[in-house]
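Please fill in the sequence for the structure shown.

STRUCTURE ENCODING:
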């Protein structure tokens, strides 16, 4: 068991006033038998009222609206959470029975969303050769997931800034490099191509002597469905099993289902974004003050500016440089 205190700050500043800012946030950690949220507060500019709902994948998300003119948007989430060790799959059931169970559930409504994969990526001959070389007769789904996780970890270099949020799977494959979102996207495709349901997970990774990539920032990994066990998390960025040092925010088919902040506003302005995450085993009253150099200019400028896809990529690259 471990206790973590997490502060996640998101701050937009605008060159002029904007109005009608509508936002969706997935900043509510999952609360289940492996992860207990002891306290959670979210503060938003102008004390905007946050309505919470549950999505199709049982994630809690919030929405809020700021109609009046404003020159900044500030979202502060503070969490105190307990995490617990998970019992790993014992892998004692016969291998052929496990694969038969995988085949049987592939069309079940509970898993069907987590079986589809990128068809263009799957036609890459190098990728096909890798998948065809997997020995499913002698290796269980559990062992295959670990093998593919290790493959991504060993064959992809962790390099910040080499990819963008718009980088395709093919581009990441050619580069053999990227950050945790890229590692996760590639592993997600591999596991699904084998036939194992797998889902994208967003959250935080907490300090650990064996985990060196992505700590103290928003993070991403996968959960694969292991027969007669359930969802099993693996982190390809660190070649680690996702256990008590991984705090889950949301799960889904892909990043779009899990992004921490999405929003739109009305205004023809330039905007700057700062995201900071602090993860600690002791309670801190504040983060370090914001630094001007940390702000990043928006890549778009129109009358109904969408702050959608860039935020997770910036969280996963910018924060890890701090």
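FILLED IN BY: designer on duty
SEQUENCE:
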């Amino acid at each position: 068991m471990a206790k973590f205190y997490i502060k996640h700050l998101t701050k937009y500043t605008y060159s002029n006033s904007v109005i009608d800012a509508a936002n969706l946030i997935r900043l509510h950690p999952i609360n289940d038998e492996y992860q207990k949220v002891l306290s959670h507060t979210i503060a938003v500019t102008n004390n905007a009222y946050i309505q919470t709902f549950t999505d199709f994948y049982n994630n809690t998300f919030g929405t809020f609206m700021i109609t009046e003119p404003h020159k900044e948007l500030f979202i502060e989430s503070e969490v105190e959470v307990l995490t617990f060790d998970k019992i790993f799959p014992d892998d004692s059931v016969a291998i052929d029975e496990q694969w038969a169970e995988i085949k049987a559930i592939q069309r079940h409504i509970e898993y069907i969303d987590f079986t589809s994969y990128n068809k263009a990526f799957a036609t890459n001959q190098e990728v096909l050769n890798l998948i065809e070389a997997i020995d499913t007769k002698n290796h269980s789904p559990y062992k295959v997931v670990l093998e593919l996780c290790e493959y991504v970890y060993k064959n992809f270099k962790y390099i910040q800034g080499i990819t963008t949020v718009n980088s395709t799977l093919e581009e990441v494959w050619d580069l053999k490099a990227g950050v945790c979102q890229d590692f996760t996207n590639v592993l997600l495709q591999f596991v699904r191509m084998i036939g194992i349901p797998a889902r994208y997970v967003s959250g935080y990774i907490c300090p650990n002597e064996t985990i060196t990539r992505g700590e103290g920032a928003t993070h991403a990994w996968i959960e694969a469905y292991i027969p007669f066990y359930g969802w099993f998390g693996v982190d390809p960025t660190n070649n680690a099993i996702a256990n008590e040092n991984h705090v889950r925010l949301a799960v889904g088919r892909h990043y779009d289902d899990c992004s921490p902040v999405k929003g739109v506003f009305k205004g023809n302005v330039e905007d700057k974004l700062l995201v900071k995450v602090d993860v600690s085993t002791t309670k801190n009253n504040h983060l370090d003050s914001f630094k001007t150099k940390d702000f990043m200019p928006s890549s778009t400028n129109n009358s109904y500016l969408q702050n959608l896809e860039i935020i997770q990529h910036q969280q996963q690259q910018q924060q890890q440089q701090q």
